[in-house]
Prior knowledge:
By secondary structure, chain A is mostly helical. Chain A is 73% helix and 3% strand.
Amino acid sequence: xxxxxxxxxxxxxxxxxxxxxxxxxxxxxxxxxxxxxxxxxxxxxxxxxxxxxxxxxxxxxxxxxxxxxxxxxxxxxxxxxxxxxxxxxxxxxxxxxxxxxxxxxxxxxxxxxxxxxxxxxxxxxxxxxxxxxxxxxxxxxxxxxxxxxxxxxxxxxxxxxxxxxxxxxxxxxxxxxxxxxxxxxxxxxxxxxxxxxxxxxxxxxxxxxxxxxxxxxxxxxxxxxxxxxxxxxxxxxxxxxxxxxxxxxxxxxxxxxxxxxxxxxxxxxxxxxxxxxxxxxxxxxxxxxxxxxxxxxxxxxxxxxxxxxxxxxxxxxxxxxxxxxxxxxxxxxx
Amino acid sequence: xxxxxxxxxxxxxxxxxxxxxxxxxxxxxxxxxxxxxxxxxxxxxxxxxxxxxxxxxxxxxxxxxxxxxxxxxxxxxxxxxxxxxxxxxxxxxxxxxxxxxxxxxxxxxxxxxxxxxxxxxxxxxxxxxxxxxxxxxxxxxxxxxxxxxxxxxxxxxxxxxxxxxxxxxxxxxxxxxxxxxxxxxxxxxxxxxxxxxxxxxxxxxxxxxxxxxxxxxxxxxxxxxxxxxxxxxxxxxxxxxxxxxxxxxxxxxxxxxxxxxxxxxxxxxxxxxxxxxxxxxxxxxxxxxxxxxxxxxxxxxxxxxxxxxxxxxxxxxxxxxxxxxxxxxxx
Lengths: 334, 331
């Protein structure tokens, strides 16, 4: 990367130029999100109010959490295709372990995190030590996990979620100063975002992930413990998936295909958020806004009255368009 | 980077070049284990009844044809996640156009092959000219096709004429026509890869695109050709599927997991996901493993969910069985 020094010119023009350069440095996901969200709030004035915005964020929070985890795996150069199945397993598993008893909520959640840890570690170990490409390893894991979830409940989930369990996904904290109601899922997203932001952007770990995604051999030679980093990345992704699963289950209820296609959506959201596939570039805030952008886009298409199938088609066009735009721009620079 | 199956032109090395990929030992192993399980825990019918054995192959036909196409794009360092929807579109368009009338068969087949060529061309152009990563490009294409498909169709539609069902159910002597079609596709794929310039260039592009380009290979054209070939094999699979189902529905491609399983069988068959290495015979081996597992599980009456658990584990272990020896880090 070369930085060109710009010759100093007189006053005003320089300031405008500097401002323009600053603006150009803002990742495209933010203006895109702003435009889509403004369009949504123009069409549906509810989105202009604070409760409306909170309700949007409550819906988007689980996807944002999934996207953070997926982003980390993508940055390390791999894929995690098992997160959709983990979401399914978490909702089914929770309904099986809750036994309709609110007192079991905490132990059930802890059990799900335990299962998530096992899945994430297994993914990481398979990729690191059996050297199976993550695309295949996590794909196999996805089949296995979904099979296990359906086997566990015998094909159809039993029971229902207790209210305290569902609170995380769809509840609001009442009487919060300044804002009144505050969605619980947004608080979870903020907690996850702060932790992962620290881990990914402030601690050494993030730089190691970027390094192995950029060039494994170079990273290895400069002392990065590649296996450890890779296993941790898959672990983080699985934990994010469990968290997302608890929120999705709380928001939407039980189903055998709640997690279907979520891994692809998370990849799409991460890419919209500027994550480079096959590694080397990514950011936690950009990934979150990638997920928000996708969710806002779905709301927009919904408000425009497009039936769901067209939403898929538009989503496809957008993913291709976003990546083509970035690719053609960087190609021009070279 | 060593590339196996480099084209050899000398006649005496013709037979040497058909070296049996190691995957076939795995096929035999799975087969033997399956038979032992069937004899001890099951009814022991598989060996007694030749129909069940041929069914192993028939089961493999649909997946096998599209897996050959997937092998092409993966050798080229690309991937195609849109095949399942190409198969679905083929199945509904075929039965819609044929509408039970034998006279419409040529029109329908020509139409769906044209659709396949357009999809493959679009995939190839997006990847090469727009510089979109193949994973994202074909995932986007899958979403677009899915949108169109479900916006237009909701259920089974039309039907194929009796004469067309011959493709799925007919036999020449004792051999099912579908198996002959599968073998034809595999042999054509093998000849294209090992006996033509296109094949050699494809290995080059997959091994190192920049080097291939600098040596004068028109890399874009090669990749576009591979994607068109892949989409056309998906169309053939769609034709076979609809001839067995007698009517097309928008979910036949995704329900058959053709996107994921075609990739899995290709990789199990020894084709490197990073490109430049592999071949169609290995893929056929991978497809047979899936066919045998399916048949044995059915004979044993394994719970369908448990089947998925085992299948997931087997995919990973089969790939691991030879990636484990590699010293390279993978992601």
